[in-house]
Structure formats: structure tokens, C-alpha cells
Amino acid sequence: SWRNQVLRTIKSSVEEIRLNKRMSQLDLASRREADRLILDSKVLVKGVPAAVGMKVASNETDIVISGMSQKKVHAVVLNKPVGYVSGQPEHNHLPAVKLLTRENGIGDVNDLFENDNKTLTGFVPAGRLDRDSCGLLIFTHSGVVAKKLVSSAGIIPKEYVVTLEPAHQPTTQERAQGLTKLPRPTVDLKPLKEGGATLLGESRPMRPMRAKWLERGKVLQIVLREGRKRQIRRVCRELLGLHVVSLERTKIGPVVLDSEELPVGKWRPLTKHEVDEIISRN
Questions:
Q1: Mean pLDDT on 23-32
Q2: Using CA atoms, how far apart are residues 70 and 243, in angstroms rounded to an integer?
């Protein structure tokens, strides 16, 4: 019939793509993770076990990973205290992942734990937050989410609140790198906003950043779209002549820190809206 002919025409006009690519688009797994899951016979397409290299319609949504809860959590966020490192243990300081316990979780998080594990497994930090800094740190097991968060293209902006005081003398490390004198303390944020400055020991100029005083000369809000080691601390010393007393990350893209809902040392799953917004950023 003409109806069947139209349906066949519509169906044939839908582009087919590799299953691992479609799984990545749906944030079910990164392409590499998808290939592993397919090899392990854990992926079903329309209820049928998938094969490595198979193609599906570019709009296919009936893709299920067997054994995975439909309430899958792609990422969690921790309000990291000072004193914890974001990655591997160093100098007797514990990694922040150790705080991802049942007791520290906000809301119903028991389903996220395997067996009797005391801490969350399979989640790794997407980015870093220095030992002496606090605030938001996201952990994920999704390659798609991680890639967006750590992209060198600065897809996801990160906001910080920084408490400052006048800096006096260069540190031993700064002197070793050739810095003999710090600039006079200033409230002029033009060097930060315009970008182009080169930090000590680097050759790549900085990108412009958003910056404004919350309390003139004392409390600064900075929004970064790039991540260099201890960047804010170095920028404040080398360009403003100010020393960072405390540094708190208050926002990562759509994820905003509310210290009443998420006290220091506590964590919660990211909402579907937050994850979807991170993934959709380009």
C-alpha cells in the first residue's frame, strides 16, 4: 500500500551509524567503553544482543546495557574540603574520592554502591582542585561527561571565589624561576579580563577571564575557561601582587554550590538536567 511505501521511504532515509557512536551520543558510554560492553555481550538493541561493528539508525533509542539500572548516575559532585587532593594520594594527603561514602551522600545513594563497599567505585575526578582549595569537584565514570569537563577548548566555565591579601616577597620557587620582585598590590583587573599575559615558566599566553570584585581588594570572583596548574594563585601573585588566602570553586557549568544543601565533605549525584546540559555544551 502507499502507506507502507511511505514508511519504507522514511525508514531508508534515516542515516545509519556505528552502535558505539550512537551509545556515545546517548551518553551510555564512551566509544571505547561501548566496544568493551558489546564484546562482553552486555548491550541489547531492540532486545537483541549487539555485535561488534554493527550499525543502527542515527535516531535509535532502544539501546540497553544489561544489568544497568535505568536510574544510572553518570556523575556525582563533592563539596571538597581543604586538605584532600583530587587525584592520587600525595604527601600523606588522602584523595577526595575517599569521601564518597554512603554516610556522606545526600539523598538516596545506596543503589550506587556495589555489595558492601564503603566508598563509591568506578568514579574518577573530572579535572582537579588543589589540596589547599575547596568547593565543587565532579567525579564521573562517563567518558563523554569527562571529555566535556576537561576539554582544552574551555567548553564548561568554572567559577571561583578568592579571598586575597597583599603579597610581599617572591617565594623560593618563584625566585628559582627568575621572579625577583612582585608587582605592587592593585585592584585593576584589566590584565585578567584582556588576557594575553604569560605566566612564569610558561610560553602560552592566557585566555581572557571574567573577573569582578565582590569586596574591593579582598574578595574576587573569577570565571575560567581553561585549567592550568594553580592558575588563579599564580595570576593573583604575578599580575595583581596579591596572595590567595582561600579559594573556593562555586560553579561548574550548570552545577552551582549551595553549602546549605551540600555541606563541606558531602556529595550528591548530578541531576539528569545537569548532566544533559554538560553534554549539550559545544
A1: 78
A2: 48
